[in-house]
Amino acid sequence: MTIRITTAASFSSGIANIQNRQRAMSDAQEQLTSGKRVQRASDDPSAAARAERALVSISRADADLRGMQASLNVMTLTESALGDGTDLLQEARETMVAAGNAAYSPSERQALAVQLEGIRSQLLAVANRRDDSGGYLFFPDWSGTEAPIQAGPPSLFLGAAGQPQSERSTAGAEPLPLNVDGMAAWRIDPATGESLVLKGLDDSIAKLNSTDVPQMPAVDISRVGITEVDSSLDTLQNLRARVGKLMNRAELVGDRIADTRLYAQTERSNAEDLDMVQAISDFQNRQSSYDAALKVYATVQRMSLFNYIST
Amino acid sequence: MGGSALMSLGSRAMFAASAGMQVTGHNIANASVRGYSRQQVELQTSNGQFTGAGFFGKGADVASVTRLFDQNLTRQAAATQSQAAHDNIRYEQLQRMEGAFPLGESGMGYATSELFNAMADLANRPTDVPSREVVLSQASEVAARFNASAGQLRAMQSGVTSDLKLEVQAVNDLVERIAQTNDEIAKVSGIGQPPNDLLDQRDQLVNDLSKHLQITTVEASDGTVGVFVAGGQRLVLGAQTTALMVVADPGDLSRSALGVRDAGGLRVISSESLGSGSIGGLLRFQNDDLQAGSEMLDELARAVSERMNAQQALGIDMDGNAGEPLFAPVADTEGAAYGMRMVITSARGLAAATADSDNGNALAMAALRDENFIDTPHFANATMTDAYSALVGNIGVRVQSARVSSEISASVAASAEDARASKSGVNLDEEAARLIQYQQAYQAAAKVLQIAQQAFETLLQSGG
User: Fold this and answer.
1) What is the Cα gyration radius of chain B?
2) C-alpha B184: how far from its chain's center?
3) Interface subset of A 112-151, CB within 8 angstroms of B
4) Which residues of B touch A169 (CB under 8 A)?
5) Domain boundaries, chain B
């Protein structure tokens, strides 16, 4: 049996076809203008899920980079503070050695003591240095209103001296330190709470200012406190070397995070972005098929037997 | 055999040809009326008259006007349209529901991961108040996103209910009209001729009805049809009708179901027995898709609230106290996403510290981004990222498969409709050809009449 074509059905199926082609064209247009292949999860559910995961990886990599930057900032500030501390201690040591000159009069020794006091107050300022957010670089746990190390002498640490400083680190797969141990850096005696660095200078200043000095050989005067200064120099230099390594490590971690971020970005783009060349060719195909449908409809629907029946 | 016999033969032939033209005209006029079946004149040869010289034919009579119609094709067209309406409305609803689960930066997965990242930033500067404020605003953003999605799902539920009411109103109206048409058909059933246009009208009403509901029809001997729904519930019997109504689903009062009020009181029709049709599609969307979507959303909201609160309680805030809840405690999973609120008021209340580290708990909260803390009926042992990706994927697959079924059933319905139309529909070229055919027949019959008249006149003149 042959299928009869009926007029109403051929009109409506013609219109339905035209609408389908127009819809296909406008879908292609929407994709082209947004640049996204996946605009809704239903466009490609597994790609949408992949893009979701990649997006979270990107935002996490950003957070990890911020953590890395925070660690690098702290370490840069710490490194420069430790450098300042080392310079000051070296200057102090030279002053103390100079005091070993037997020809110095008491007033000359007192002048050296004044010089040492100046160094001491600078060193105290370095130990109490703050970071850019207002916390104490070496004692982030300290939340009191006064500086954590008292001016003295004796220079006492106001926090709980016996308790170790908390080790702060960043979040992430490779945690980076956010502080160095201030108790060790400034050699705070767990028993007395006194900073042994400053104590060495205090001892030397006291000896230089004292009146019974003439009974003492000049060489011995210069030795007062110098062992403390020497071991503090060692401590600061060792710590400075460690901080340098940590900064290197932070930069390496930063590189790795950036790689992860790039990977995730590529993954996201692969999952949801449009292949422009393909898309433009698709769009042109759909455009011509829409055009063809319109032409065919206009031609076919004009034809009728009534055109040929004349009275 | 005289001139008068020829005259009556000619005039009956003219009547037959003009009946043909009238029916053709009727077809042309109804070419684009939905549900119209083309009609044709059934002519039959009049019985011959016996004379001594044998049987003389007496021309043709109009026996009947019939419609070209196939019961099976019509039923199939209705049934496939019912399925197409079901799949189409479910697809439309699912598309709208997909909008409640946005992707990328505007999604809940991203917002929650930004909250965890804000905790990581807080770990970098645990006593920094601006970092704490960022955590709070990110937490309230998470709650807001969950609220917005849950709100959209609630709006969809009330949309389904009001759509159902409109559908049921249309169904009740169609049911009334089928019963009226039944009544009119029964009145003329004794005549012996088919009331073609009434039958078409009723077929079209039944067809329209089956777009809303999956129905079965049973024909009675008086020409009326009985219409039944959901495996036996009567809607039309003769001229009698039963009205449907939208009621709250006794299983879950927030959902809607269909019911009927009859002698036994109010009865709820089980949604599973409704089958296809747009009402069946709406109910399936409501009971299956929308339900699953809200369950998943609520499960995520509850898991995030509870896990964050638990971690917060393990830490110490800036005033040295154990952490107070970050989000409002959840009593019941249902409604958890809609009720999600950030309840902490001060940034100092964030418990970033632990007993031995001033950022220990912030680190623990940041570590939640990798913890499989979501373990619910829909998500087994998943991180928030995995769970939200799975949720988005699940909804996406639902929409995708609904789209495919909708495309398939629409094309099945279109080809069933084509088959029906191929039998019953009007082709104007065909009618134009018929018109010429009947016009020529009419002219020929008129010629017969003219010849008969001339023959009669010749007889009269020779008699004079």
Assistant:
1) 37
2) 30
3) 133, 135, 140-141, 143
4) 123, 359, 363
5) 3-68+425-463, 96-153+288-400
The radius of gyration of chain A's CA atoms, rounded to the nearest angstrom, is: 40
Cα dihedral B242/B243/B246/B250 (nearest 10): -30
Q: Six-digit token pair at A116? A: 């040492």
* Helix H or strand E encompassing B416: helix B384-424
Decide the pairing of beta strands B215-219 and B60-67: unpaired
SS3 track for B312-381: HHHCECCCCCECCCCECCCCCCCCCCCCCCECCCCHHHCCCEECCECCHHHHHHHHHHHCCCECCCCCCC
| Longest CA pairwise span in chain B (Å) | 143
Residues B183-225: tens digit of each pLDDT: 999 999 888 899 999 999 999 999 999 999 999 999 998 889 9
Which of B121, B124, B421 is facing A6, going by the closest CB pair? B421
Measured between CA atoms, the residue of chain A closest to residue B116 is A60
Number of Cβ within 10 Å of residue A295's Cβ equals 10
Query: What pLDDT sits at residue A289?
Result: 92
- Could you give the 3-state DSSP secondary structure of residue B214? coil
Numbers of helices and strands, H then E, in chain A: 8, 0
Confidence of residue A164 (pLDDT cuts 50, 70, 90): low
What domains, with CATH codes, occur in chain A?
53-269 (1.20.1330.10)
CA-nearest of B229, B226, B290 to B254 is B290
Min distance A209 CA to chain B CA atoms (Å): 43
Closest Cα of chain B to A151: distance in Å? 25
Is residue B66 within 8 A of residue B73, CB to CB? The reply is no
How many residues are recorded in chain A?
311
Q: Residue A43 in contact with residue B455, Cβ under 8 Å?
A: no
Q: Residue B140 CB: number of other CB atoms within 10 A?
A: 17
**Which residue in A41, A55, A167 is closest to B98 by CB distance?**
A41
Q: Go through chain B and tell me how many residues it has.
A: 464
**Residue B230 corresponds to which tokens in the numbers above?**
């959901």
SS3 B68: coil
Whether residue A40 and residue B98 make contact (CB cut-off 8 A), yes or no, is yes
d(CA A72, CA A67): 9
Q: Which whole-number Å values give the CA distances from B294 to A225, A228, B108, B141, B284, in the listed order? A: 74, 69, 14, 19, 15
A107 three-state secondary structure: helix
Give the pair of three-digit tokens for residue A308.
Answer: 């040929």
ipTM for the assembly: 0.77
Q: Which of residues 235-264 of A touch B (CB under 8 A)?
A: none
Among B101, B120, B396, the residue with its CB nearest the CB of A67 is B120
C-alpha to C-alpha distance for B61 and B16, rounded to whole angstroms? 6
**Of B126, B367, B426, which has the smallest distance from its Cβ to A8's Cβ?**
B426
Judged by CB atoms within 8 Å, which residues 165-184 of A form the interface with B? 166-172, 175, 178
What does the DSSP 8-state code read for residue B257? Answer: E
pLDDT in tens, A105-152: 777 878 888 888 888 889 888 888 888 777 788 887 777 777 777 777
* Counts for chain B of helices (H) and strands (E), in that order: 10, 11
- B266 CB neighbour count, 10 Å cutoff: 10
Nearest to A253 by CA among A72, A113, A57: A72
For B161, B258, B272, the CA distances from B255, given in Å and listed in that order, are 8, 11, 14
Residues of chain B in contact with residue A4, where contact means CB-CB under 8 angstroms, are 422-423, 425, 427, 430
Hey, what are B197's tokens? 């246009």
DSSP structure class, residue A214: G
